Structures are given as structure tokens and as C-alpha cells.
């Protein structure tokens, strides 16, 4: 249904800038300030390797609809939301799907809604499709709304 966006060219600019800093501190390693140079070479080396991993490894997630569940397929921590547990689907700007950058799914049994964002397909397209699939609107029905024990009773 949707896939998250690829990292942009900025990820390669991080690799290049950190590699230049690493080269600068490697030159200073033999000088008088070798203690600071050792720390900076270590830090820059870790940052270069981390940035390379983020730039090269495909960490995109896919949003998949099945007949009975919404699946967020990603490398780490995949997420499965049963269709009957979906209470509401809205955007991060309530009532304005065209303004929203992310899809917010309210799920029965979770204390916080699930935020799905940064997909190639805009939220204004995903929100109505998910609402139709789940048979819900953009607000939680009153019968399914969480009840608080410390709320005052109705007179």
C-alpha cells in the first residue's frame, strides 16, 4: 500500500563531512595535541561508520493491508494491528487530512495511538483508504472511549 521514503542526499553529505573531519584529525594525531586527536578520531570514525550504514542499508518500512490486519513491515519491530482493534484513523492535524504529514491510528488496548509517517504516499490519500478498510471515522466512538476512574460522575 505504501513505503517509507528513502534517505535523501543529505545522508551522503554527513558521510563526506565526517570523513573530512576524520582526515583532519588523523593528520593531527602525530602532533602535540594527540590526546584530543585520539578522542576526535574515535568519535569521527564511529560517526562515519554509522552514517555509511544509514546511507547504504535499506531501512524503509512497508504498510500492508490484509483482510484482517494492518501490517507495518520493517526490519526491526514489525507491527501488526488487527482490523477489529482499530477505533479511529486520523491525521496528525485532526480533521484536516490534507494538512497532515502522518496517519494516526487509535487502537483498542493501547494507551497511545500509533503514528505512521514519512510514507511516499501522502497522508491525505492513506487516511480515507484506512478509514474505509477499518470501517471507522476520524474520532473514537463514545462507547469505545477510555473511561477514567477519577472522573466525576454525571449528576
Mean pLDDT across the residues is 82
Strand content: 15-25%
> Count of DSSP helices?
3
Taking the sheet with the most strands, its summary is: 4 strands, antiparallel
Radius of gyration: 23 Å
Number of strands: 7
Secondary-structure class = alpha+beta
**Uncertain runs:** 147-155
Helix and strand run = EHHEEEEEEH
Strand order of the largest sheet: 1-2-3-4
**Helicity range:** 25-40%
User: How far is it from the N-terminal to the C-terminal residue, by CA?
Assistant: 48 Å
Shape: elongated
Task: Give the topology.
Layout: E1 2-3, H1 10-28, H2 34-56, E2 62-65, E3 69-73, E4 79-82, E5 86-91, E6 102-107, E7 114-117, H3 123-134
Antiparallel strand pairs: 1-2, 2-3, 3-4, 5-6, 6-7
Helix pairs in contact: 1-2
Amino acid at each position: 500500500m505504501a513505503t517509507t521514503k528513502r534517505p535523501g542526499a543529505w545522508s551522503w553529505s554527513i558521510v563526506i563531512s565526517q570523513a573530512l573531519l576524520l582526515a583532519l584529525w588523523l593528520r593531527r594525531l602525530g602532533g602535540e595535541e594527540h590526546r584530543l586527536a585520539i578522542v576526535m578520531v574515535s568519535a569521527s570514525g564511529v560517526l562515519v561508520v554509522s552514517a555509511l550504514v544509514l546511507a547504504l542499508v535499506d531501512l524503509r518500512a512497508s504498510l500492508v493491508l490484509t483482510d484482517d490486519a494492518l501490517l507495518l513491515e520493517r526490519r526491526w519491530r514489525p507491527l501488526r494491528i488487527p482490523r477489529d482493534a482499530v477505533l479511529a484513523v486520523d491525521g496528525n492535524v485532526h480533521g484536516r487530512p490534507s494538512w497532515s504529514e502522518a496517519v494516526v491510528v487509535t487502537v483498542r488496548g493501547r494507551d497511545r495511538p500509533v503514528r505512521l509517517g514519512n510514507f511516499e504516499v501522502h497522508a491525505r490519500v492513506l487516511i480515507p483508504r484506512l478509514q474505509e478498510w477499518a470501517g471507522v471515522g476520524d474520532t473514537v466512538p463514545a462507547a469505545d472511549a477510555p473511561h477514567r476512574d477519577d472522573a466525576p460522575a454525571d449528576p
